[in-house]
């Protein structure tokens, strides 16, 4: 039986939201930014929210997605309406443990369909592509520095170069495993001297040395092993000298053709990364939040080649030891022909910026309105509340 | 930077070991327009399409079928899951390859070998070139029409795409390059065009009933159409609508790569190894950017591309990108306007555009105006160090470590062309590590004199002092390779 849902219903999962989690004492010390961690995972290429979290309770879904829905026959349900893609086995466990939630039918302010503009907007937090030059994650580092009257927390891109979301005034490091042999110490010292008078290169150089020292011998040759990658990020966020804010990008979500297999592989990779990261964070997971977002969603209907084209709303994921999880937050727009955005896409009903700002404000104990104003200026939306357990 | 240093470094790939710095900088650059060879021997031998793409895709299909069978019987599913997706990867790839039947393994290895050899040819031609500025243009345009070997089958065609669709046209007409590059098998495959068919085409009509019964849908894929408008021609603010994207996608139906299953039998050969299947083409006339295109075969898309190439938005878009590449991350508006006007006046004559660029005063500001990308830095370092040509495997590995493997950009927009994307801590450290290695195998005499020649009247006192203080010629060379002068142009 299919259930009709009121369009304005806030969907809450049937899973008990972490009785154990609620019982955990909130440690006063953990309120400061000094011990709170954030990992932002950017899914580049427009990940399909309807494949990630299939609205199986919507009567319109079968006509749009056809045989690909077989994948969800035995998939874990969140509430009666949504089924999680089966490749997200570990995420599913986190949902069950009340440590992960989804926001569905969410989108940034961007309403066109260019990856590059969409990513630009999601990363800068501006209201129009290319209107803002720095990234919201970098501004968050600055904001935390001010709010807690200290230095900006260490920020790190786990990538060979710094993605736009992390670029800006606050210093940021980058790190990615390399198969190149280390340079000799003498040579490194001379390079340091060579760059002394060059402020840009000197800054890059000192940050590179710091992060490399932190990573030690990572034993990795590249960033492609999802699980090792998750463990690596966690290792770079350990202790006082570790990064408090980190970002990683995952490519490959642009599933224009044969989406079923590709999406499953991508999802398995993301799932393994998140699981290894959580396990690597150990005790610190309690004070850690992971935000997973993508630039926009995909067409509701499969195209002629078993894929989906660029669309509008998608889903976002929030995980963490303090998250009030086990549920899906959605003002479900429906999938009937008249309900789709421009007759083709899942319609956006939640502003992704308000989700991000709300989650970050609660996680870092910031004033929500101030967080929204700084990270995503010019937005009318209210920051979403109730993401973190009170 | 001095004008000679600008001619060498901002315009080109720097001085090669043994070369003398040029006299008049503009004359030096203009002569390269004549000295450029679009098809040196090594490239001519590799420019033809391999015709292997169809084979490769058929192979992948049968492999997928076998996997599904294996999955149903509960064996081998996970071992086999890797290779199609992970061919770009190293360790997982090796592991996945080991689990394959020999005939499949041989094909995957062949694809990788072909790709690596093409890559080495690209690098070695640029390193030895007497026209490094024009080689830079080749790489600029190749990035503009970016294809990625992350997609199975494209490994055979990424090299030929640059060699046959880009190189012959860098000093020719933009419209010719557009048609050759956007409709080359590499692009047709990379952006899913090869499997896009017109919903109203005879092929779909005939197939319709059977497919509907089997629950399959067939039809249009608008990926290539969208990227042609957004990235290759008009630019994202170029004034096109979703309706233009869909209409262009319809016009493009029928363009595919030969040798693929059902449709392949009806393919008519097109230039550069593409094919056109009339049965898959959407019938009827098209309306794109306010112009009407009569019903037709392969010519319908070609006519649209010709008009897009000549559109004022395209002139603006190309001018901005070229200005950014040579004139700085935020190029002066006067430079963009100068290039735009030339493009419009000549209808996209790229030789004229290059001469206008060379003559533009905005490109001769002392600077530096750009942070070198990893690929630019590597070619400049290889030229300056004068080391022997590296083996293909090594070249592929090094470029991967530096963070910029050609034909592997993360998106159809190609690699970024701004410092913010490349001037990062880890990227710098990798260059330092590699420089020390490169200097081990290169001639290391007279490094200071080579430095003065490579950056005439542009070497800083700090760099000069550090080179003098180096404990060996090799160390001096390694320091020169990572000096601030080498990092920027």
Automatic annotation (TrEMBL), chain A:
Pfam families found in the cross-reference section: DUF1501
Matches recorded under PROSITE patterns: TAT (PS51318)
InterPro entries from the UniProt entry: DUF1501, TAT_signal
PANTHER family, A to Z: BLL7424 PROTEIN, DUF1501 DOMAIN-CONTAINING PROTEIN
Protein name: Putative exported protein
Automatic annotation (TrEMBL), chain B:
Pfam short name (any one): DUF1800
This protein's name: DUF1800 domain-containing protein
Organism (species): Erythrobacter dokdonensis DSW-74
């Amino acid at each position: 039986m299919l259930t009709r849902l009121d369009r304005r219903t806030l969907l809450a999962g049937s899973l008990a939201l972490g009785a154990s989690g609620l019982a955990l004492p909130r440690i006063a010390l953990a309120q400061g930014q000094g011990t709170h961690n954030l990992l932002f995972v950017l899914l580049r290429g427009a990940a399909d929210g309807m494949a990630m979290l299939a609205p199986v309770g919507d009567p319109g879904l079968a006509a749009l997605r056809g045989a690909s829905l077989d994948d969800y026959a035995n998939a874990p349900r969140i509430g009666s309406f949504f089924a999680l893609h089966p490749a997200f086995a570990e995420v599913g466990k986190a949902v069950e443990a009340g440590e992960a939630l989804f926001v569905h039918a969410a989108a940034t302010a961007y309403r066109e369909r260019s990856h590059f503009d969409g990513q630009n907007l999601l990363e800068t937090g501006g209201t129009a592509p290319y209107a803002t030059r720095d990234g919201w994650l970098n501004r968050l580092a600055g904001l935390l520095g001010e709010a807690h009257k200290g230095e900006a927390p260490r920020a790190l891109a786990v990538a060979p170069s710094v993605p736009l979301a992390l670029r800006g005034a606050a210093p940021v490091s980058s790190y990615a495993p390399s198969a190149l042999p280390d340079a000799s110490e003498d040579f490194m010292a001379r390079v340091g001297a060579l760059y002394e008078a060059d402020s840009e290169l000197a800054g890059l150089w000192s940050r590179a040395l710091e992060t490399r020292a932190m990573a030690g011998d990572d034993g990795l040759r590249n960033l492609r092993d999802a699980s090792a990658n998750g463990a690596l990020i966690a290792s770079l966020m350990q202790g006082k000298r570790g990064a408090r804010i980190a970002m990683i990008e995952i490519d490959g979500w642009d599933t224009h053709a044969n989406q079923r297999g590709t999406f499953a592989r991508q999802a398995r990779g993301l799932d393994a990364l998140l699981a290894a990261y959580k396990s690597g964070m150990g005790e610190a997971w309690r004070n850690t939040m992971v935000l997973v977002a993508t630039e926009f969603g995909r067409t509701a209907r499969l195209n002629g080649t078993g894929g989906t084209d660029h669309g509008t709303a998608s889903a976002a994921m929030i995980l963490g030891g303090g998250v009030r999880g086990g549920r899906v937050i959605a003002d479900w727009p429906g999938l009937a022909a008249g309900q789709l955005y421009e007759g083709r896409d899942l319609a956006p009903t939640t502003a992704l910026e308000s989700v991000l700002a709300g989650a970050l404000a609660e996680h870092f104990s910031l004033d929500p309105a101030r967080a929204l104003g700084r990270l995503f200026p010019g937005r009318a939306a209210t920051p979403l509340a109730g993401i973190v357990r009170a | 930077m001095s004008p000679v240093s600008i001619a060498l470094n901002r315009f080109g790939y720097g001085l090669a070991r043994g070369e003398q710095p040029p006299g008049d900088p503009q004359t030096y650059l203009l002569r390269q327009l004549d000295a450029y060879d679009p098809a040196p021997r090594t490239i001519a031998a590799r420019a033809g399409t391999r015709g292997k793409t169809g084979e490769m895709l058929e192979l992948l299909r049968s492999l997928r079928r076998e996997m599904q069978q294996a999955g149903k019987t509960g064996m081998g599913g996970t071992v086999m899951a890797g290779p199609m997706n992970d061919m770009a990867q190293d360790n997982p790839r090796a592991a996945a390859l080991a689990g394959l039947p020999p005939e499949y393994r041989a094909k995957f290895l062949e694809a990788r070998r072909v790709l690596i050899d093409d890559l080495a040819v690209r690098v070695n031609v640029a390193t030895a070139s007497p026209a490094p500025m024009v080689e830079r243009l080749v790489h600029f345009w190749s990035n503009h029409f970016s294809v990625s070997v992350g997609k199975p089958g494209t490994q055979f065609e990424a090299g030929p795409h640059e060699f046959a669709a880009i190189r012959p046209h860098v000093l020719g007409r933009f419209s010719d390059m557009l048609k050759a590059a956007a409709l080359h098998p590499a692009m047709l495959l990379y952006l899913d065009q090869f499997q896009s068919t017109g919903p109203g085409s005879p092929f779909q009509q005939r197939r319709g009933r059977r497919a509907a019964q089997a629950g399959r849908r067939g039809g249009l894929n608008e990926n290539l159409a969208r990227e042609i408008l957004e990235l290759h021609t008009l630019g994202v603010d170029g004034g096109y609508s979703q309706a233009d994207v869909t209409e262009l996608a319809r016009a493009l139906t029928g363009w595919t790569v030969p040798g693929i299953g059902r449709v392949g039998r009806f393919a008519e050969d097109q230039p550069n190894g593409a094919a056109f299947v009339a049965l898959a083409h959407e019938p009827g006339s098209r309306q794109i950017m306010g112009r009407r295109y009569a019903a037709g075969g392969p010519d319908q898309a070609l006519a649209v591309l010709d008009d897009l190439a000549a559109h004022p938005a395209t002139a603006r878009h190309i001018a901005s990108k070229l200005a950014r590449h040579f004139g700085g991350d935020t190029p002066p508006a006067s430079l963009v306007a100068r290039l735009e006007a030339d493009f419009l006046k000549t209808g996209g004559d790229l030789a004229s555009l290059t001469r206008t660029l060379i003559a533009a005063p905005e490109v001769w500001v002392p600077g530096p105006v750009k942070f070198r990308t990893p690929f630019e830095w590597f070619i400049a370092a290889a030229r300056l160090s004068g080391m022997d040509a590296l083996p293909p495997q090594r070249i592929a590995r090094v470029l991967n470590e530096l963070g910029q493997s050609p034909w592997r950009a993360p998106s159809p927009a190609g690699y970024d062309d701004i410092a913010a994307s490349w001037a990062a801590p880890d990227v710098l450290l990798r260059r330092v590590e590699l420089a020390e290695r490169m200097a081990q195998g290169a001639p290391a005499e007279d490094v200071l004199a080579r430095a003065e020649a490579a950056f005439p009247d542009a070497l800083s006192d700090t760099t000069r002092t550090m080179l003098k203080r180096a404990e060996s010629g090799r160390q001096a060379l390694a320091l020169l390779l990572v000096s601030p002068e080498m990092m920027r142009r």
